[in-house]
Design brief:
With 123 residues, the chain is an all-beta fold. The protein is built from no helices and 11 strands.
Length: 123
């Protein structure tokens, strides 16, 4: 059974930084795409970034250059380093896994979700 557990959310001021972590288990990370999605208040869940089994990455244009996805395969942990945070980055952030052979774009592509961690950016 795939399990994803996020941590590291919090409240920061605009311009600040946060690093989210996602401990994963029950999946083969040489086969699964991993991703971070977010859901702002009152809006739909959207993909932020994904990382392929071969470590190539795809970023949403809104975070490119500010956010960095990485992972430690030995620790089975996925990271999202977030810098130059903006109030519009405020959202619940979710770790996600998909075994579909391409970078998941839609929540419908996702096979397993974490419970999420809240990020709040104040101006």
């Amino acid at each position: 059974q795939v399990q994803l557990v996020e941590s590291g959310g919090g409240s920061v001021q605009a311009g600040g930084s946060l690093t989210l972590s996602c401990a994963y288990s029950g999946l083969d990370d040489s086969e699964f795409w991993l991703a971070w999605f977010r859901q702002p208040p009152g809006e739909e869940r959207e993909r932020v970034v994904c990382i392929a089994p071969g470590d190539s990455t795809t970023y949403d244009h809104s975070v490119r250059g500010r956010f960095t996805i990485s992972r430690d395969r030995g620790k089975k942990t996925l990271y999202l380093q977030m810098g130059s945070l903006k109030p519009e980055d405020t959202a619940m952030y979710y770790c996600a896994a998909a075994n579909i052979g391409f970078c998941p774009l839609s929540p419908a592509n996702i096979g397993a979700w974490g419970r999420g961690t809240q990020v709040t950016v104040s101006s």
